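Researcher: We plan to redesign the surface later, but first we want a full-length starting point. Tokens attached.
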């Protein structure tokens, strides 16, 4: 909220923002000095706050349901579905009402509305505190991960003899039932004996973290449980990495698609739709699809597959990644159609093309569906599979995927322009007029990259073994 307050004050005060753009002479004056510092402080505070909320709210909400019962697991799955639904509701308000207010009343009013919304949400959230099931913090998961990795590397470098012993868990040794039999083979009674816990055989290089070695200091002493927890997170990382490409596609369609719509006819009845409001399409599709998925698709899948979940987390993520391929292919075809109309009307024409912007909605339909399937599936997958002490970190990977995907989109655009631009040809994605871009070729490239990413995902998904009860059935 502090970041929004700073942005509201800066947008309100004339002395804290640069002069208005003069498009006829000097153009726009670049913000610098104290004005730039205030702007970036506000933006980074907003990003920090949003990151904290989105990273902690999903696991907090999911922990309100009992994961030990089938009913609780079903309710938890519904929660993640409607968590994405609520995000879309907020996005709908942002790209319609708030955008309209900013365009017609000023940026200070848009930031002010956002600040007020956050301010009202705080007492509403605190009102439910007596009813929340709270998880007691047990230290930072990043500390555990760093400790295990450093200990494994140090022990690997310091000791290479095969006689090193593996430490036991030490805190609470596990017990296993042993059936005692008579000589005739009949079971008489059950005796519980303690067993020394040893690391699993997967990701064996991490097992060196529990090797007794004089070189390892006390601060780097690791238990077998800590090593196994880090292994679980390491196994989740390839699935997380495969979702980055989808977010890269989301970034491209939320930038270039807006530029496409700006060249098209944006009239809807008597209303002229601002191109900046185009993200309303995927938001609406998510809001429509979320209840359909929860009330119709999942129950039908449960009856067909005879399983608790109906559709597993990895299957849901895979469906989303496949839909992203379809979305990019449709985006390329729509751009081919738009370019054909632009060619007939004159490529250098600044007038809106005689083609409705609703053609853009087709690619948004599949992209919004892909986002719903992948985001909700990844959130539930990370929460269900991650160790109890690392659930917040694991669910935060979904938002890390979003951030990395948007950064990667910028890198891909730069690489494409560098490779395609030479003395004889203009870069595919550079110039003043979008009609001279080769945007359709870029979309086909993204489609191919998404297909290769999907193949890579299939490899890791088929290799992954669930550890949660609901998905192992």
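Model: Full-length starting sequence:
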């Amino acid at each position: 909220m502090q970041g929004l307050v700073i942005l509201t004050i800066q947008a309100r005060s004339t002395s804290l923002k640069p002069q208005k753009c003069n498009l006829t002479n000097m153009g726009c004056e670049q913000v610098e000095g104290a004005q730039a510092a205030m702007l970036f402080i506000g933006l980074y505070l907003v990003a920090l706050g949003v990151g904290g909320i989105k990273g902690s709210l999903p696991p907090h909400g999911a922990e309100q349901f009992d994961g030990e019962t089938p009913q609780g697991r079903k309710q938890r799955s519904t929660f993640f579905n409607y968590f994405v639904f609520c995000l879309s509701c907020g996005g709908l308000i942002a790209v319609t009402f708030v955008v309209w207010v900013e365009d017609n009343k000023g940026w200070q009013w848009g930031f002010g509305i956002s600040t007020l919304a956050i301010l009202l949400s705080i007492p509403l959230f605190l009102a439910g505190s007596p009813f929340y099931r709270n998880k007691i913090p047990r230290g930072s998961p990043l500390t555990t991960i760093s400790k295990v990795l450093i200990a494994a590397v140090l022990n690997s470098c310091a000791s290479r003899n095969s006689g090193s012993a593996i430490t036991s868990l030490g805190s609470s040794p596990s017990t296993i039932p042993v059936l005692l039999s008579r000589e005739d083979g009949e079971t008489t009674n059950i005796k519980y004996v303690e067993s020394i816990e040893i690391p699993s055989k997967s990701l064996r290089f991490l097992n060196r973290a529990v090797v007794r070695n004089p070189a390892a200091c006390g601060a780097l002493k690791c238990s077998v449980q800590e090593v196994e927890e880090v292994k679980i997170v390491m196994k989740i990382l390839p699935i997380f990495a495969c979702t980055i490409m989808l977010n890269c596609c989301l970034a491209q369609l939320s930038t270039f698609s807006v530029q496409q719509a700006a060249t098209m006819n944006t009239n809807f009845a008597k209303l002229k739709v601002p191109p900046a409001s185009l993200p309303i399409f995927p938001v609406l599709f998510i809001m429509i699809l979320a209840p359909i998925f929860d009330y119709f698709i999942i129950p039908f899948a449960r009856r067909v597959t005879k399983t608790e979940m109906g559709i597993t987390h990895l299957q849901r993520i895979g469906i989303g990644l496949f839909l992203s391929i379809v979305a990019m292919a449709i985006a390329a075809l729509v751009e081919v159609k738009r370019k054909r109309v632009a060619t007939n009307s004159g490529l250098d024409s600044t007038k809106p093309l005689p083609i409705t912007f609703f053609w853009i909605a087709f690619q948004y339909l599949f992209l919004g569906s892909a986002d719903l399937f992948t985001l909700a599936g990844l959130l539930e997958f990370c929460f269900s599979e991650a160790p109890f002490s690392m659930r917040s970190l694991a669910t935060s990977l979904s938002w890390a995927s979003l951030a990395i995907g948007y950064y990667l989109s910028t890198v891909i655009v730069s690489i494409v322009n560098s490779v395609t631009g030479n003395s004889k040809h203009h870069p595919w994605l550079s110039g003043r007029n979008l009609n001279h871009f080769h945007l359709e070729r870029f979309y086909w490239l993204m489609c191919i990259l998404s297909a290769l990413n999907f193949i890579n995902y299939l490899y890791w998904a088929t290799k992954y073994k669930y550890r949660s009860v609901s998905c192992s059935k």
